[in-house]
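Batch job 17 of 40 flagged for manual review because the log was empty.
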Amino acid sequence: KMLGSSTERTSGSPLLWTATRVFWTLGASITRTRVEEGGANRSVSSCSFERAVTRRISLVEKQGSKEEGKMLGSSTKRGMTRRLPSSTTRMRMRMASVASERRVLVSTTTSSVMRIPHSHDASSSSSSSSSWRRRKRVVGRPRPPHQAARAVLDGAPPAADTSSSSCLDSDSDSGKPRVIIAGGGIGGLCAALALQSKGIPFTLYEKVKEYKPFGGPIQLQCNALESLEAIDMSVARQIMDLGTITGDRINGLLDGKTGEWYLRFDTRKPALKKGLPLTLVLNRYVLLDILKGAVKPESMTLGKRVESYEEVSAEDSPTGKAFVEVRFDDGSKTIGDVIVAADGINSTVRKQVRTRGNDEATYSGYTCYTATCDFELEDVEKIGYQVYLGNGQYFVASDVGEGKTQWYAFKAQEPGIKDESGDVRGNLLELFKDWSADVRARFEATLEEDIEQRDIYDRRPVFNWVKGKVALLGDSAHSMQPNMGQGGCQAIEDGYVLADVLSRCNMEEGDGCIQQALNEYGRRRCARAASIHGFARSAALMTTTWRPYLGSDPYSFYSYIPGAMQFWSALEKLKIPHPGKVIGQVMMMVSIDLILEYIACGGPVSEEDRVKYCQVPGVGVPKRDLPKDAFKMNGIPGFAE
């Protein structure tokens, strides 16, 4: 519209008229929008924006129309340069300007995410596509050049700066604080990657001598992917290419025994609203391998665990400048300006930061059995993850791609009770004997040796993550229960914010800027992490009161009252919905969209660091055969199915 009106007013300018025609044709050739009832479907050509721009410039330069030929003079590049030396330069500048205004980021390969201008009306198509079956991916396999290419236009976040040196390098930029990171898990590696992208010198110390495969798949929700894109787009792309998307399918809560849906929720809505990638799952060791591979090797030291630290004031410093001295478990020492404690729930650094009161980890009341098995639901293209609710126990399962399912079985019990019977699977089948057939089928598809058990701990929320020049990050700051799938996601957000505040710190003005930056980090992160921590705890509390019908799972003290247990058993057969279940469903139906939106859209990433976009079904993500009412609960709230 802007170009059109400008052309009408300045029709005498052949150069502007040429630019107008170029962009009008370019826009028509790249995207066309077709609005239908029930949503908007976008069809995007397979060529990238960058290639289209190059093609159009070449067309104008070499094959211009007669009217354009008068302006350009010769159809050859040499003739054009001789007669109008600034025309091409102006045209390229204008194209870059408009590209920036449109904030477009386009991939050059159809196997990855195709990006188009963000729209609130974007929604996934309901038509099926049998070609979008999950493919087995091999980590570390080199990609063909055409798949490795990426087009990043104006408005996209800058590429990671790989020029940062070790935090102890005397030749490093004196204006940047030297950061020591304790711990090389997801939080520590993301913090390192974020600092690296900002050109801040750092050294990461990890206690293990070698990274080895461990753990199962981890869920990365759209808020975590948003932060990763802002930190390093190439890393985010690798993760999204290797992950299995579950955020475009039906997810929700079910009754454990009947298998009936208690609540279905649409995790696409918040992603589309803010232009975020869809939630996916990825093996934890694959994620760590990608993050570790993106960090400069000289900035990492393995086999060293931070044991303690000491802040040295300027008065006591031999150089006249304050610093922090870190001691390791092998007796060695190093110095820096900032310490980031990313060493997990049992952080040694946190013990020195928080010395008052009881700061021990809190047992959740549940032990967790988990495994990954060869199992797929018949409607796996429609179902992502399911949470089966029961009294004092619950079961979580998610499709993780390649015909596999990851599951978690939670049981309320005292801590420290390890099942060493040698038949854990049989015990779980007995524990869940009255549950849905789909729950039991997953147990039956699991190998005994693949089942792991661990007690679930978290830490109560605290609102002070900073002490002096030390900042907590990840599980050392906000270890939470896995019920919301946000533990690692919040650690990624921590890393982004920490690097953002430290990037504005100028050491040449004194080290007071470090304290200000770390305090800002705490203000931006504490409240949000505490809120999501509360959601995770609340989800576990739901199972302690869950009863589908009046008379189900009566309290144990009724066994001391003659005839009470028989009464409740007879009442349960009438299948009268329990009042707690009714009220809970009403509250969940009212609040779930707000909760999901807060988790997904409440992230700390600024618009300057990331471009909004929509993933195109059938191009960058699968097309799901979901009916329009797939997420609708039928019936009045409290009694809906």
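Reviewer: the log was empty due to a logging misconfiguration, but the result itself is present. The first strand starts at residue 31 and ends at 36. Unflagging and moving on to job 18.
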